[in-house]
Design a protein that fits this description.
Number of helices: 19
Distance between the termini: 48 Å
Largest sheet: none
Helix content: over 70%
CATH architecture: Up-down Bundle
Oligomer: single chain
CATH class: Mainly Alpha
Number of domains: 1
Length: 455
């Protein structure tokens, strides 16, 4: 066990793990997706359902994934090999590690392109080009960006280099220092935007929209959306949480630590909604449920037409970039750890190799918005295919397998040993929820996602 700890090191404290896992969980999904799906599904009623889904789906699986990582103390691939051997399970369960690592790299390949958009908008806001912009002008700017592969590749490359630079530093000097810097910075930036929203936006109207309990606007599809987002927002099934769990201090309580991560992740999502909706409502032509365009079209219009908006719009897109950066470093780390362990590469070489693979794959996403836009396979652009493969297939399948192996097949004594700090009542409740509710819910997310795509 000591040799495995020395290979990568451990987090300086339990709170470093909390910040790291929260950084992995807090990404574009919190600041971009959560506000607009809450907007589309009636605000407060959706938020309540979402919180229940976090408790019944996200957190139980997260506890299981952290526990697997800490038990193995290695990359997800090698941790699963050790655990399946220890529990006398068939080698097929090793696929959980491979599935997570590959999914993380696929997601990073297109995530870097989208995050590059946020970097671009920092400069656009700071330059003043969006001052007084109309919705048509903002839409034209966004379309011009997507149509320019050279510009997209430039910002994609900058973001990928930012990611590689952090992860190459290792667990303590790279990842640990980064999360202890980036996460406080993210909260400070979010508070700054929130104060601006309070002073200049329609704050009471935004709060009413976000927290008003409007059950009529919440459909069955909205409940499924809440279930899916509760699973995806915590970065489950992509190897990141298992890898971070491997660096967790031995005596830290997994249950309370995961609760802290879930609470911080949800807090950021709610604060983002409280910051965004009042700004959107301050501009009467914008809609709060405007979909993905909320981030790159609606908000630039709102910021561009408010006193001090260009400054705070710049700060907002720095916030978005920091959130994306903290997530991206967790997507490449599991694969880096595997190459360091099994192929004896140093961290810099492993990062350059994997970052290069993700960058090359990301070119397909870049071209999906311009020169390859008309080339489709079974109705998918290259980007849509990668998004579907990772989000609708690989992550739910990985989540189901984690719930199955921990809830049903691992030796009970091994699971209890890792969660020995929990009371018998808490342990039994967690395991029952994991075995039945979490597993069935993720299976439903998987089946319905496939049906909605091909049905």
């Amino acid at each position: 066990m000591e040799d495995k700890k020395k290979m990568h090191g451990t987090w300086a404290s339990r709170w470093t793990f909390v910040l790291a896992a929260t950084g992995s969980a807090v990404g574009l999904g919190n600041i971009w997706k959560f506000p607009y799906i809450a907007g589309e599904n009636g605000g407060g009623a959706f938020v309540v359902v979402y919180l229940f889904c976090i408790l019944l789906i996200g957190l139980p699986i997260m506890v299981a994934e952290v526990m697997l990582g800490r038990r193995g103390r290695l990359s997800p691939i090698n941790s699963m090999r050790l655990i399946t051997t220890e529990s006398g399970l068939h080698g097929v369960w090793n696929g959980i590690g491979w599935l997570g690592v590959v999914a993380g790299l696929i997601i990073l390949s297109y995530y870097a392109v989208i995050a590059g958009w946020a970097l671009y908008y920092i400069l656009e806001m700071a330059s003043g080009s969006l001052h007084g912009a109309t919705a048509e002008q903002a839409s034209a700017l966004f379309s011009k960006l997507q149509a320019d592969p050279q510009r997209l590749i430039f910002y994609q490359s900058i973001f990928m280099l930012m990611t590689i630079a952090v992860v190459a530093g290792g667990v303590t000097r790279g990842l640990g220092v980064a999360v202890r810097t980036l996460m406080p910075m993210l909260f400070v930036l979010l508070v700054i935007v929130l104060v601006f929203s309070y002073r200049e936006g329609e704050f009471s109207r935004g709060l009413e929209f976000l927290f008003n309990f409007n059950t009529e606007a919440l459909s069955g599809e909205g409940v499924l959306e809440a279930m899916g987002h509760a699973f995806f927002t915590l970065s489950l099934g992509m190897g990141a949480i298992m890898a971070y769990g491997a660096y967790m201090p031995e005596h830290a309580r997994i249950g309370t630590t995961v609760l802290a991560v879930g609470a911080l992740d949800t807090l950021v999502a709610l604060m983002a909604g409280m910051a965004i909706f009042p700004i959107v409502f301050a501009n009467p032509v914008l809609e709060p449920g405007a979909g993905p365009g909320l981030l790159f079209i609606s908000l630039p219009v709102a910021f561009g037409n408010m006193p001090g908006g260009l400054l705070f719009g710049t700060i907002f897109f720095v916030l978005v970039s920091v959130a994306a950066w903290s997530s991206a470093i967790s997507l490449i780390e599991p694969a880096v750890a595997y190459l360091v362990e099994s192929h004896k590469l140093n961290r810099l070489t492993a990062n350059l190799l994997l970052g290069g693979i993700a960058w090359l794959t990301g070119l397909g996403t870049v071209f999906s918005f311009n020169i390859w836009a008309d080339y489709k396979l079974a109705g998918f652009t290259f980007f849509d295919f990668l998004d579907f493969l990772s989000s609708s297939v690989m992550l739910p399948v990985s989540g189901m397998l984690i719930a199955l192996v921990v809830g049903w097949y691992m030796k009970p004594g091994v699971v209890q040993e890792e969660l020995a700090d929990e009371t018998p009542t808490v342990f039994n409740c967690w395991k029952t929820v994991l075995k039945y509710i979490s597993l069935a819910s993720v299976a439903a997310i998987f089946v319905i996602g496939i049906y909605k795509t091909f049905g």
